[in-house]
TrEMBL record:
Residues 9-334 form the Acyltransferase domain. One of its GO terms (molecular function) is acyltransferase activity, transferring groups other than amino-acyl groups. One of its GO terms (biological process) is polysaccharide biosynthetic process. This is Acyltransferase family protein.
Length: 455
């Protein structure tokens, strides 16, 4: 059996199991309701799957931001990662609803259409009290809130505090869960929902387009808005909403422990605190069991992360967003469970190849173009100069003079600037190969893995 040995294959494998688990949860309720009722009474498989996703996001999203070191590139990457498939899925959902083979929430027609569009396109509908066009989109709202909080912390250089933040959020969830069992921003707060949605759009736009203190202020405001939305807008209550946020920050703590920037015992303590508080705020045993099992499964995969995983499983992880977002659209289209999964796998593969992958490549190209434009007008030390590199005088580095023609050809320095982790351990030939792949639009980690394997 072919195996995937890339550094993050274990995360793809996790997603490759979590997405079909969520699809199984919804499809089994459709095709085998009596059997699945007995399973669901003991453990909520759908909740288990989404909490695996939350842990994976907590682990990888801050790593992606800090690897880029650029809030503009981060938000551009997120937009081109999520929006192409989201737009395609929403269009398909509305088309199927018009044909009578997909059912949307009846509350959609009772809310102002501009608000419905704003909430669903920003993926904040769950926290703005607006129905989702596709029911599984509720998890994307918590992901967006996490992105906002992560970007805000990064802007003020506090992103390293993921473990204490996870603990604070989890501990606060217990009393707030009792005080705020439902959403404050609900179906009757259209004006508040619209203002919050517009505010989030504005802070992201300012973060991407502005510089200096204005960009920092916008990112911080965005982080505060994300936290406020989780507390005030969680339909499942502030307690469980804060536990979801805490789970993602606990995933970040695990990543920092692996990187050596956080003591492992602190990461473990943070995760255990989150799990205890998650059990305390759970409104039913199946929800608590799902959270605990998701953490245990994540810990097992983390333990095995250096081992090879089957390529087919990693591929399921690559197309997991398509599997997750599109599977509700098939529930009234296919006749039974086996056919459902066969059609879903084919649809997920096609959606990834035709929608997701081109969108991601376009996002990487836009980031690469912007980075090249910025670098073309800077000194090697990072200051902008008129005339770009052609205007550079020879610079002194470590006691010797180096001309501008010599400086850029150090492959290890180029690898460091391009964000290729571990570039100092690669040969010059491997680095050149990796940099060539990055220039064609590949992400740095895939380019590094392919360059090392090719040589």
């Amino acid at each position: 059996m072919a195996a995937n040995r890339t550094r993050l294959a274990w995360l793809d494998a996790l997603r490759g199991i979590a997405a079909p688990a969520v699809a199984l949860h919804h499809s089994a309720w459709t095709f085998l309701p009596a059997v699945w009722a007995e399973v669901d009474r003991r453990v909520d498989v759908g909740t288990w799957g989404v909490f695996v996703f939350f842990l994976v996001s907590g682990y990888i999203i801050p790593a992606s931001l800090e690897r880029r070191g650029d809030l503009r590139a981060f938000w551009t990457g997120r937009a081109f990662r999520l929006l192409p498939l989201l737009l395609a899925a929403l269009a398909l959902a509305l088309l199927l609803a018009y044909a009578g083979v997909f059912t949307t929430s009846p509350d959609l027609d009772r809310r102002p259409r501009p608000l419905v569009a704003l909430a669903n396109l920003t993926m904040l509908q769950e926290l703005l009290g607006v129905p989702s066009v596709i029911n599984v989109m509720w998890t994307l709202s918590y992901e967006m809130a996490f992105y906002l909080m992560t970007a805000g912390l990064y802007a003020v250089r506090q992103a390293h505090r993921s473990a204490p933040i996870a603990v604070v959020l989890a501990v606060a969830a217990v009393p707030l869960g009792l005080l705020m069992p439902g959403a404050t921003i609900n179906g009757g707060a259209d004006v508040v929902a619209a203002l919050m949605g517009v505010a989030v759009v504005l802070v992201i736009v300012v973060t991407v387009t502005a510089n200096g203190r204005l960009r920092t202020a916008a990112a911080v405001i965005g982080g505060l808005l994300g936290l406020a939305l989780v507390i005030l807008g969680s339909r499942i209550g502030a307690g469980q909403g804060l536990v979801i946020a805490a789970v993602m920050f606990a995933g970040t703590a695990v990543w920092r422990a692996e990187q050596g920037t956080l003591r492992p015992v602190r990461a473990v303590a943070a995760l255990l605190t989150v799990l205890v508080c998650g059990v305390l705020v759970a409104d039913e045993p199946a929800w608590a069991a799902a959270v605990l099992l998701a953490a245990g499964f994540f810990a097992l995969a983390f333990r095995l992360r250096h081992r090879p995983f089957p390529r087919w499983l990693a591929h399921l992880g690559v197309i997991s967003f398509s599997l997750y977002l599109l599977h509700p659209l098939l529930l009234r289209v296919v006749p039974n469970l086996p056919v459902f999964f066969l059609v879903l796998l084919a649809l997920g593969h096609v959606a990834y190849r035709l929608v997701e992958a081109p969108g991601q490549r376009l996002g990487r190209r836009l980031n690469a173009v912007r980075k090249n434009r910025v670098n073309s007008g800077r000194w090697p030390c990072g200051r902008r100069v008129r005339g770009g590199p052609a205007a550079l005088m020879p610079v002194r580095r470590r006691g010797r003079v180096m001309s501008e023609e010599q400086e850029p050809h150090d492959p290890h320095r180029q690898g460091h600037e391009a964000g290729v982790e571990g570039s100092t351990k690669m040969t010059a030939a491997q680095l050149r190969e990796a940099l060539a792949r990055v220039g064609k639009g590949e992400d740095t980690q895939s380019a590094k893995a392919e360059a090392e394997s090719d040589r």
